[in-house]
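[audit] Reproducing an earlier prediction to check determinism. Same input, same settings, fresh worker. If the tokens differ from the archived copy the diff job will pick it up downstream; this log only records the rerun itself.
[audit] input (373 residues):
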Amino acid sequence: MMKILRYICLALIMLNLPATALVAFGGTAGSVLSYLTILLLAFYYFLEKKTEPNWWLLAIAILYFTISSLQYSGSFTFYGLDFIKYLIFVICGYELAKRVTANELYVFLFIGALSIGLEALLLTNDFGRYSGFYLNPNVAGFICIYGYSFIYGLKSTTLKLIGQFLFTLMGLLTFSRTFIVIWILINLISLKISVKNIRIFGIGFLIFSTLLVIDETVGLNNPRFEQLKNIVNNENVSTQEISEDSRTATWAKFYDQVLESPFFGNGYGTFSGKLGVLGAHNTYLMILGEAGIIPFALFLGYIGFLFYWSYHFFKQSPNLIMQTISLSVFLLANHNFFTFYYMSFSAIWIQYQIIKLKKETANETKYLKYDSV
């Protein structure tokens, strides 16, 4: 029963089913699945054995939501529900993450990535970018690169090759520039594991060829794909075209507001688009702009913790530093860390893997000391 409940919770979180239901079937279905996610997580927590809570994210969440409420001008019910739901998610979701294996999470990421391809084949659009269950191509790009990072923690060569092909192809269908940059970075890091990993760049060329076939079949109709083809064909592409819709230009619109209230922020929703205004598209900037420097510094400390220890355990689990890079860089282009639960869950899963490795290392050290005596 617990395994079934765990898989249902994972599907609701990692496949973004509440938001998908909202778009496909309307507000009622979306709301029902959203509250069902929280209720099932709470039920899972009630039935499961309790262990140490996630103090990192609890402290960050309490500081962020509390301080950002001081200048909040919207509906208190809306704010209160977001706060309570996220606290429940952090407390209960952490117990869930402790019992989710790498293979289990990999499967759900794989299914999520497949939904992007299905949308491209069955629901082609004039926009030319696809997102599957995740509704936003940039967010879908995060799922693909996070899943791609997982392959370096798998033992099966077959699963690795399948994952490399699928996550890369689906990621390219999102036409997320962030995905492409991180994909290149991760594969360069993989050369530290083995020089043989250089073959992935050859697989990347094969995947790009597959994309050309898909373009001929369904017509991707995407300006970024045309730019990419022009680069490959050594044709001129203007710098203005490549940098169009740049995130840095979006961030710049919020800098003055940050300087106006650096300690207590500008209030909940002012940088995340919840009050009907443009969002900052940057989680770090959002936390700083809405709640000030204290939760911002703590969140940077949390990301620093993930970076330091995932790098420390590179030999044991090289996938962790790659997943940390994928998450932290994508947060530069997305402001929904506290509302897109699959992003928070991705961070929580890395965090617990680090804690588990630290405990295993400490136990091994104790055993060696005892054995030497």
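[audit] rerun output stored. Observation attached for the diff report: Residues 271 and 278 are 7 Å apart (CA to CA).
[audit] end
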